[in-house]
Amino acid sequence: MNQDHAHSHDAEHEHHHPHPRQPDVEDAPLSWHMALTEAVADLMVAKGLCTTADIHRTLEVIDAASPAAGARLVARAWLDPVFRELMLADVNRAASDLGIDAGAIPIRAVENRPDLHNVIVCTLCSCYPRFLLGGSPDWYKSKAYRSRMVREPRAVLREFGVDLPADVRVDVHDSTAELRYMVIPNRPVGTEGWSEERLAETVTRDAMIGTGLARCV
After folding, report:
1. What whole-number distance in Å separates Cα of residue 156 and Cα of residue 159?
2. What is the structure's pLDDT at 63?
């Protein structure tokens, strides 16, 4: 490799990082997944599918996402039956109608009922609707959560403080790279007449994963 090529590659490589390099992690040998990510990014740039600036901007949007976007969708669904039906049919389109970018990957909303509680997991890795719920929590990516939630969901939910009556069915939804899920939690009792903004404050990230409940604040 000549010096000019090495310099060019290093310059491109630096643009893949939207944050200062972490010497305790990024200066260590790349893991298989890290190397694959770098290779795919380099290939996309080389093929002209995007630029390093495009990658940087996308990562900035993802990093800036917060559960407030998803909470806004849920609050609107509680108040507007037409919007609720749209959200159940197509979350991405419903989000777009509110001026929210939910990303390109399809997202399906699953609705809690008095007799049904939904919870989300990704058994293979950590697929998750980041544009609407913000960054995924560490426990969501843990092997313990990913394996136990599908085998003993009630026990795991109790550890999160969600102790469901025996007559409430628990449905576990497995997110994939092609399809993500989010939960529309039950509306808290006593919120009649509340504004959309106030209702949104009752909706937490965990409530939209299913490991929590919407609560009055």
Report:
1. 5
2. 59
Taking the chain, what is the end-to-end CA distance rounded to the nearest angstrom?
61
Q: Collect the ranges in the chain with pLDDT lower than 70.
A: 1-28, 33, 56-66, 217
Please report the beta strands in 36-106, taking only residues with DSSP state E, as ranges in sequence order: none
Q: Are both 56 and 71 inside the same structural domain?
A: no
Residue 214 within any structural domain of the chain = no
Please give the residue range of the domain that contains residue 97: 67-209
Tokens of 164: 């469901």
What is the per-residue pLDDT across 101-125, written as a single tens digit (0 to 9) for each? Answer: 999 999 999 999 999 999 999 999 8
Q: Is 127 a catalytic residue?
A: yes
The residue annotated as part of the active site, out of 125, 142, 195, 216, is 125
Identify whether 122 is a catalytic site residue. yes
